[in-house]
Design brief:
alpha/beta; Urease, subunit C, domain 1; TIM Barrel; Diaminopimelate Epimerase, Chain A, domain 1; 8-stranded parallel beta sheet; 22 strands; globular
Length: 533
């Protein structure tokens, strides 16, 4: 039994309670403390919250745990603040490892703004004896040295894949060393990967860290191969999957609808108590300002990036997977891409009016104001990553590319909410931090969490604490098709609960990022406990 603190239930009325009783993995009572005491018996653990806060477990509805786990052991470039610092860090990594490939992660593509075009020669100067691949923080740009280009077979004659970019010297046509978006597959098919045991150990460690931060459910938003799904399955088989996991199977635009049968088979294979695979992920445009598909040319008259997949083909794919009973998870940055996604969902709704699919558009950096109201009319969930919504190198790269007049459109979270759109929140780890409290603070303040005095990014689009908590709990549960079992504190629901060291409603917004989880329960079982509780 929990008592003596603030229990924010996230039920339909957003009510508060004095106590909660858990038995057999489920919530059996929520209400006044006097009524709850009747449940106390021999062996009952009574936890005095002493003013702390009890919430439903957080649900990360857009994250990449396996990807994050695989990047963790790589050479880190996160702290490099210049091109020179990146190269020096790679040189240091090269001296410290005898691996056949130098693999590094975390350099900022904004260091090369406005053209994301680092040169292979800079890497050749420090690593010439083996391939070196540097993965940008946004995961949409790779920087290769000459040996890596040779190893993956990228030459002057290499045809650029649809939806990808091989940056070439404008005079010679030779690859400069930078690859973007779908051209990355040329590298991913060749570069070394961790073995199964290493992957399982790293994934388990990442999920434990998520438990520590209060997460009890997640959507892995990019399952690009069956081995990723089997990693979760193996953890569940040996009793180590302390998380409810939904898998978003990545759609390959080159294979198109030939993937339908394989996707249905994956869905059937991964339908267990804690593991589901009934979401299809489609990238509609790229992952950088240059790769965002906009409705007008970029500043300077350069043509905007084309969508990864033509509008007609996108509508056909969304309709087909909707017919198969899948929910779609559509990645968009630019306004043209978002409009294409909405048009595709409209086509699916028209073709399958009785569909129960819960389609999602995620990221929403620059949706056009005229399209905001369409989300509600089409029943589309807006998946947001609140941590992105402050002035930083990422957000500052968009106005100079797409036009400064468009800054007002950036991350229009409040406009979406005012239009009646359901907001679900995700971390987008490893590109952004996992910590939900940091993201919630940014969602409220629209300021840098490390600099509360900084100028906010479109302050009118700030959200309330109530809205953000719902986005991380009951709304995310709805997106993940489990709102009947989780997402709120109500009798009969599974006891996925967290205790926080303070009542978030009683502290300044600027200090929410300092909050800590003291206890995480998954179906009534402790999966994380701090020594102080």
């Amino acid at each position: 039994m929990f008592r003596g603190g603030g229990v924010y239930t996230l039920d339909e009325d957003r009510s508060w309670a004095e106590s909660v009783v858990v038995d057999g993995g489920r919530i059996v009572a929520v209400g006044p403390e006097a009524e709850a005491t009747s449940h106390i018996g021999q062996g009952t653990e009574v936890i005095d919250l002493a003013g702390k806060m009890l919430l439903p477990g957080f649900q990360d509805s857009h994250t990449h745990p396996i990807l994050g786990a695989s990047l963790e052991p790589l050479c880190r470039l996160d702290q490099a603040t210049s091109q020179k610092a990146v190269v020096e860090a790679v040189a240091d990594c090269s001296r410290r490892t005898s691996e056949d490939w130098i693999l590094a992660f975390g350099w900022r593509s904004s260091l090369f703004f406005p053209e994301i075009a680092p040169r292979k020669e800079a890497l050749d100067a420090v690593v010439s004896d083996r391939p070196a691949v540097l993965i940008a923080k946004d995961m949409h740009t790779f920087w290769l040295n000459s040996r890596a280009l040779e190893a993956v077979g990228v030459t002057r004659e290499t045809e650029t894949p649809p939806g990808g970019v091989i940056v070439r010297d404008p005079r010679s046509g030779e690859p400069t060393g930078a690859l973007r978006d779908l051209a990355l597959d040329l590298v991913l098919d060749v570069m070394p990967r961790p073995n199964l045991r290493e992957s399982l150990v790293a994934l388990h460690a990442t999920l434990r860290e998520m438990n520590r931060l209060g997460y009890t459910s997640l959507l892995d938003a990019r399952v690009s191969e069956p081995e990723m799904a089997w990693a979760y399955w193996l953890l569940e088989a040996v009793g180590l999957l302390d998380m409810r996991v939904s898998l978003a199977i990545l759609f390959d635009p080159h294979e198109g609808l030939a993937q339908r049968a394989a996707f249905r088979e994956l869905r059937d294979d991964f339908a267990t108590d804690r593991l589901q695979a009934r979401v299809v992920k489609i990238f509609v445009d790229g992952g950088t300002a240059m790769g965002a598909s906009a409705s007008v040319p970029h500043v300077g008259g350069r043509p905007s990036a084309a969508p990864y997949i033509p509008e007609a083909a996108l509508a056909e794919a969304v309709t087909a997977f909707d017919t198969d009973g899948f929910s779609l998870h559509l990645h968009t940055l630019g306004d043209r891409a978002t409009r294409s996604a909405l048009d595709a969902i409209k086509a699916a709704r028209t073709a399958n009016p009785g569909s129960e699919a819960r389609h999602v558009i995620t990221h929403l950096v620059y949706p056009h104001p005229q399209d905001v109201a369409r989300f509600r009319s089409l029943g589309v969930i807006a998946n947001i990553s609140p941590w992105w919504a402050f002035r930083n190198e990422w957000t500052e790269s968009f106005p100079p590319t797409l036009g400064p007049d468009r800054e007002r459109w950036m991350y229009p979270f409040a406009s979406l909410e005012r239009s009646g759109v359901l907001l679900a929140a995700g971390s987008d780890y490893p590109f952004t931090p996992l910590n939900p409290f940091e993201a919630i603070e940014v969602g409220i303040t629209r300021r840098d969490p490390d600099d509360p005095s900084s100028r906010p990014l479109v302050e009118d689009e700030a959200l309330t604490l109530e809205t953000l908590l719902a986005a991380y709990t009951i709304n995310a549960a709805y997106q993940l098709h489990q709102e009947d079992r989780t997402g709120s504190i109500e009798p009969g629901k599974l006891a996925d609960l967290i205790v926080i060291d303070r009542n978030l409603f009683e502290v300044p917004a600027e200090s929410i990022s300092e909050a800590r989880v003291l206890l995480t329960l998954l179906e009534g079982e402790v999966v994380y406990r701090a020594g102080s509780l």
